[in-house]
Specification:
The structure is a homodimer. By secondary structure, chain A is mainly alpha-helical. Chain A has two domains: about 60 residues, Orthogonal Bundle (Arc Repressor Mutant, subunit A); about 140 residues, GntR ligand-binding domain-like (Four Helix Bundle (Hemerythrin (Met), subunit A), Up-down Bundle). The first copy, chain A, is built from nine helices and three strands, in the order H-E-H-H-E-E-H-H-H-H-H-H. In chain A, strand 2 and strand 3 form a beta hairpin. In chain A, helix 4 packs across helix 6, helix 5 packs antiparallel against helix 6 and helix 6 runs antiparallel to helix 7. The N terminus of chain A is likely disordered. Chains A and B meet through helix 3, helix 4 and helix 7 of A and helix 3, helix 4 and helix 7 of B. Chain A binds a DNA duplex (21 and 21 nucleotides) through helix 3.
DNA sequence: TGCGATTTGTCCGTATGTATT
DNA sequence: TAATACATACGGACAAATCGC
């Protein structure tokens, strides 16, 4: 019954809460709500034409996804970003993704490779169009491949949490610095190594990939 | 201004929502709410003498902690447990804890060792008393040491999520099988290796430690 | 320091949509 | 298919805490 999707296809958010959550997330990733900015419930409530109950629940879910932060009686704010946070995000991604590859390596299949190829091509072509929001989703989907291959639900949960932060930084990077299509070869090399015979080479490449990504974002933020 | 506490000392939950969350968590860990059991909002609302708004927010937070699951229009249930979930939990813990030790290794200090000793002794003495709830918290605190030593907030967040699931399985293990004081030597060896000179020996021990823990819980569940 | 305005936290009654039997 | 139980959502109200002057 469930499509084998990641959370890419909303299809339809059944509850108002889910719709609100998506709208706020879009505003954050789109740069309308900037890091550190205060979100006032009554204002949001009237803007989005929803009552405070589902709004507050949506906000709490975004807190648990790491998009927002909250303190009792002080309300919600967009998560502030720092170089330290970014550093932690990349080191965490590196550790999780290495773990994922170690698990996924013997589980790779021809169908899996075909799917990875598809996501690779989608990513490359959407990058060319300059549609930032879609490019981010494609980038996430591309990297999600290895996690899905592990068939490890808990690991996928933790990746999902990380991916939200990745989205924030990618959108920030783009909003500040413009597109970053300069990683084309890196992406293709990543795909080829996934399809190759050496796990060690793959793990080594992840370190490089992450380090380069980190440097690039840091440079853009400064 | 903040005390250097983990989440061990509630001190006082300022919001009703936080108090409700704790009460429900206690009921789950205490075995009053069993895995898979349905939680009806109106019933809980009147039992706990709170309105449904903060109750629902508390329930959502527990969902995000992995304690409960929910589906639109079908309500909340205590997270069902399976051998697969347990296996994933232990493999995830192994991966994260190895990563934590690699980071923490050069950051260890004499004060840190003193703190670890304290937690070790607390754990051993509380195990002797048979107070299950406190023993679980001490066990969690003992293992939290390495994560705190890393000074890596994002990693600590992910450990916090895992720790909630660990609590569930430990309480389940106890409720079904009785206390498990048979791990005394293992715990002491873990502490000694933390204090020792070989990171590799530590990492190897983590594998053994987790494998034994997994086998023990699986045996109790069957 | 205090005081008023703003905002969050909580409660209640009601109405509607969904799942289940 | 109908009936019931329940989750979802609304709007108004007030208390409690924070914020700004």
């Amino acid at each position: 019954m469930n499509a084998p999707t990641t959370e890419l296809s909303p299809i339809e958010d059944r509850t108002l809460r889910a719709q609100v959550r998506r709208q706020i997330l879009d505003r954050v990733l789109g740069g309308h709500f900037k890091p550190g900015e205060r979100l006032v419930e009554t204002a949001l409530s009237s803007q989005l034409r929803v009552s405070r109950a589902p709004l507050r629940e949506a906000l709490r879910e975004l807190v648990d996804q790491g998009i927002l932060v909250s303190e009792p009686y002080k309300g919600f704010r967009v998560r502030p970003v720092s170089e330290r946070d970014l550093k932690e995000l990349f080191s965490m991604r590196t550790a999780l993704e290495k773990f994922a590859f170690a698990l996924a390596w013997p589980l790779r299949t021809p169908q899996g490779f075909a799917e990875l190829d598809k996501r690779h091509d989608d990513l490359m072509s959407i990058r060319a169009t300059g549609d930032q929001a879609k490019a981010i989703e494609c980038e996430i989907a591309f990297h999600a491949w290895v996690y899905e291959t592990t068939d490890h639900r808990l690991l996928m949960d933790h990746w999902a949490r990380l991916s939200h932060l990745v989205r924030i930084y990618m959108s920030l990077h783009h909003n500040l610095h413009g597109s970053h299509g300069e990683f084309g070869e890196m992406t293709t090399r990543y795909r080829d190594l996934c399809n190759g015979g050496s796990l060690d080479a793959m793990l080594l490449h992840i370190d490089e990939h992450m380090t380069q990504g980190f440097d690039s974002v840091v440079k853009a933020l400064k």
